[in-house]
Each structure stands twice: as C-alpha cells, then as structure tokens.
Amino acid sequence: MGGLIFIIILIVILAFTVFKPKNPVITVDSVTLADLKFYLDTTKFQVLFNVSLDVDLSIKNSNKVGFKYADSAAELNYRGLKVGEVPIPAGKISADKTAPMNLTVTVMADRFISDSNFFADVSGGELPLETFCEISGKVNILNLFKFHVVSTTSCDIIVFLSNSSVGDQNCNYKYKV
C-alpha cells in the first residue's frame, strides 16, 4: 500500500514539475516575396496589385510530452490593418521537437495601397509588418493529466524589399494553461 501511495505522489510531482506544460514558441524564420503582379487599367482608372508571400515559421514544443493543436490561423498586419491571413492545419508536435511550416499568404494588396505610409515605406526599402498567431491545443501527460494550452505570438518584423529578407524581428509570447 505504501508503494502505491509513493508511486502516485511521484507521478503527481513529475506531472507538475518535469512535465509541467510549457509555452510552444512560434517563430517567423523568413518572409520572401513569392509573386508580385502590378497592372494599371487606364480605361477603368484602377490599379491592380497582387502580392503573395512565402512565410516560413516554426513551432517549437519545449514540453517533455507531445503537443496536439487544433486548426488555427496566422495573420499578417501592416500598421495595424489586416492585410493577409492563412490557415494553419491541426497537427501534433513530439516532445522537444520543432515543426517547420511553409505558408503562402496572399496579401490583400489594396489595403496596403490605401495606407498613406505605404509608398514612403516602399521607397525607403523597408516594410514594417506584424504577424499574429494563436494556437490552442492539449498537452497530455501519461494519459492522466490533460492541460489545455493557448499560445499567442505577435511579432513586429521588418521586410527588406531589396532582397526580400526579414530584418529585425521583435516577438512577444503569451500562453495560458
């Protein structure tokens, strides 16, 4: 009987120390220009502008057990205005592993053009963008304890237009268990 109590206490201690749920960290690794179309329709006095960005991001599971997450979405914002959104399909990340993801974001370019700062940013060669991603899922410890985890990442990034690379990246991470 004493051995059983010891094992139960040990499992509870491990569940709340070693196996304590940790924040899955979402990192934007690169942003590259995948497609750029610009067309001026003089008959209708319209400017048609379409941009697609390839966004490589990674989700690091620093938990000692797997992390299973639901369908989510990543947002791309320009000066507070949503200019793109891409779904992130549900999945599972093993313990202490990183899952790379390549997402293609079709940008609502008309929203860029409507911002008075856009042309100044383009002529300066730097485009300030914000990414926002919220992923919710579960951490299952020994099939005894299930924790619901919500990880939120928001990053301010600078895209250098000359070489389509990501420069400065400042991210804030939040999570709830």
Fold and architecture overview:
Pfam families: LEA_2. Helix content is 15%, strand content 60%. By secondary structure, it is an alpha+beta fold. The strands form two sheets. Strands 3, 4, 5, 6, 8, 9 and 10 form a seven-stranded antiparallel sheet that branches. The protein is elongated, with a radius of gyration of 21 Å.
Rg, alpha carbons: 21 Å
Which regions have little confidence, pLDDT < 50, spanning 5+ residues? none
Assembly state here?
single chain
Number of contiguous helices:
3
Mean pLDDT across all residues, rounded? 80
> Strand share of the residues?
over 45%
Number of domains: 1
CATH fold-level assignment: Immunoglobulin-like
The CATH top-level class label: Mainly Beta
User: What shape does the CA trace take?
Assistant: elongated
Q: Tally the beta strands.
A: 10
Helix content: 10-25%
Order of helices and strands: HEEEEEEEHHEEE
The assigned structural class equals alpha+beta
- What is the name of the CATH architecture? Sandwich
Organism: Gossypium klotzschianum
Protein name: Late embryogenesis abundant protein LEA-2 subgroup domain-containing protein
Signal peptide: 1-15
Pfam families: LEA_2
